[in-house]
Design goal:
Two copies of one chain form a homodimer.
Chain A: H1 13-20, H2 24-31, H3 39-52, H4 58-65, E1 70-77, H5 91-106, E2 111-118, H6 125-131, E3 137-141, H7 147-154, E4 159-162, E5 170-174, H8 176-191, E6 195-200, H9 206-221, E7 226-232, H10 237-251, E8 258-261, H11 264-277, E9 286-288, E10 305-307, H12 310-326, E11 334-337, E12 340-343, E13 355-358
Parallel strand pairs in A: 1-2, 1-3, 3-4, 4-5, 5-11, 6-7, 6-8, 8-9
Antiparallel strand pairs in A: 10-12, 12-13
Helix pairs in contact in A: 1-2, 1-3, 5-12, 8-9, 10-11
Chain A binds a DNA duplex (30 and 30 nucleotides) through helix 2 and helix 4.
Amino acid sequence: MALADRGGSVVTLYDVARLAGVSTATVSRVVHGQDRVREATRAKVQRVIEQLGYVPDSAAQSLSRRRKDVIGLVTIEREVKQYDIENMGLLYYDEILRGVQTRIRDDHRWSLLIATLYEEEERDYPRLISLTGKVDGLLIGEGIIPGALLARLTERIPVVIIAGDPGKTDVVKADNHSGATALFTHLVEEHGCRRFFHVDGPANVPDARERRFALGQVLESHPQCGLIGSYRGILSVQSGEDAANALLISHGEALPDAIVCVNDQMAMGVLQAFAKAGVRVPEDVAVTGFDDIYPFSLNDSPLSTVHQPMRLLGERACDRLLDRIARPNLRRRVELLPTELVLRSSCGCPPGVMTRRPVLKVKAAPSPGRPAANGQAHGNPSSPAGRPGWAATS
Amino acid sequence: MALADRGGSVVTLYDVARLAGVSTATVSRVVHGQDRVREATRAKVQRVIEQLGYVPDSAAQSLSRRRKDVIGLVTIEREVKQYDIENMGLLYYDEILRGVQTRIRDDHRWSLLIATLYEEEERDYPRLISLTGKVDGLLIGEGIIPGALLARLTERIPVVIIAGDPGKTDVVKADNHSGATALFTHLVEEHGCRRFFHVDGPANVPDARERRFALGQVLESHPQCGLIGSYRGILSVQSGEDAANALLISHGEALPDAIVCVNDQMAMGVLQAFAKAGVRVPEDVAVTGFDDIYPFSLNDSPLSTVHQPMRLLGERACDRLLDRIARPNLRRRVELLPTELVLRSSCGCPPGVMTRRPVLKVKAAPSPGRPAANGQAHGNPSSPAGRPGWAATS
DNA sequence: AGCCTTAGTGTAAGCGCTTAGATTTAAGGA
DNA sequence: TCCTTAAATCTAAGCGCTTACACTAAGGCT
């Protein structure tokens, strides 16, 4: 003891009470305002608080109030070891985080705890469960954590999933299906693209799955179009380069009309690889992304993509979680946020001009305040995999 | 009560103890392993824990142990209202955060709380102080919070400053001076630049100050060179565009040889503005950044810049903080991390090749493990402002 | 004057966990 | 068998705060 002990409470409520000659209850009341305390008493206590530099201990407060005033944000990072970590660029979560922070700031009392999970690392699960004891609610990115685990979390504290599948929890997500449909339709109808190559993401990522499904639908409804192949990457820039190189090898002499990428990172990787290989975009081939990550938009040959309101995703998810913490009996809700088609030059639209087109939604998102019907967010059958005609060919 | 009460402890240690027929002390020991408990007892307790789904309440643990096992990361965002928020792109802190998270992950027991402060918003100060009651230590980005406030924090809990001035606390920062010197010298000696324009950052940002100082020194030691003007921006892309436009107006017919920007964001802004105005880089003018933000490196006309090891900054700062929490009496230390010159094409180096050059430090950073001498990290006089010959002219 | 409010304050019982110290049990040893 | 010692377990006192409830004093009524 004594040595290196300094952890133990500097100044406690008791010290303040003693010095001010009042009870701890009174001090507590002064600290929290709003309670009826005579002005003279309040001033006296306040003076002592300042003099002593008293700051309440949050652990004691939490214990006593049975509320931690902390929410957690859990994000997922995948296969870090496989690629140079610098290439991952988790720009997507960075924006989500920003959104959440914005909300937290508005409501002074909350703090934000963050944790990153590594995909497929089961040893992270206990960590996640013990997080449950540290927060009042959890925001979880991309609902790819196993259902059983999710259930264990949910029965303990409120959980809101960001960009995940509508399961039994609240979900806030972007309208991938409409956005992707608009983008692919644009390629077909306005640029006359026929032969597509799909730079896809992991099979189990919900966003990727929905975009993939939309591609299948668009191709199906345009019989003159088809998929010449696809590549399953891991959403990183490097992975996009790999995809492009694989394509160059397999279809070097007969490039597709368009390469549609599941996210902007992969599209940037494709652009990088093509620049090195001397393939011109969009002259030789159109390339599109998805998400509209800000720094990428600064590129000289900027990406046509679908804007996903990432910050808003964070904000709304946070709102929802706070709501549910306050009133646990709310009905479950899936909130779908609108996407926007962003046309720059990489798809063949005139360079130098950027057009933003709101995408009309396939099905209306539940208007804020009104609970949505339970069930799927839009009409997707839940297992689009295995549809004929557009399985990987490459 | 009853309604919406669900906050109150689901399963407590007592429940486990009762059901397992042991004392709470024993359960506690089982939960924390390592203590001497008979194997049979341990198994029995463990079984009950699983059956009940018991998760310890962190508030109670913290209160009892007098330790929260949480550290806080405080970042600063500036003048958000003034510019489109999308343009801010806090890529720098995102990387730092990643570094911190990496470390947190290694040492399972810690959690990370994050808070953003808005510059000059005094109403954020109380928030910062009350943070002090929620964490065991604080990592603070850019030491531009007022000294008095910092002092109040420091006397309460361990604090490590990232990229700030060596004051009375521990500091972890990049070697701005050496990096900037190398970059500017490169421009002068290898590209023959003579007339410079400085796209500067806020006066009170330590990183900006050091880079500015290095510029002054380099210009001074090369009498044939000079500053034709400077622009004080706020580190954002938009702000960089503004700088370029201002320059175009004031020196449109006689552009400088080089535009040196205090960070990559501003440099990107300059590039954007020049692209619109038809100014060619590097043919008409060289442009350089600082930091080496990853997504910007994917640009077609990539930026020459100085790489700052942002992740490492986060990791080291975290290490240092954890160290100090464990042993509060450590000697104060300033840790200087090496920078690296990254030559791409925007300064006039041959396009397509990227050269990374380690920068040799002006003064050695204290080797890890050995405390540094107190005082300035390297030989800068503390007030480089007001030096003759390079004040803003524009 | 006696009674009832009401505002202001105090008392003390938790909140769920850890842990020093007391107690019990088991294991050796003579 | 009894004693000593070590191992295992238990008891109970906090940790610093909140808050239901109790109490007091001062008005305001009738």
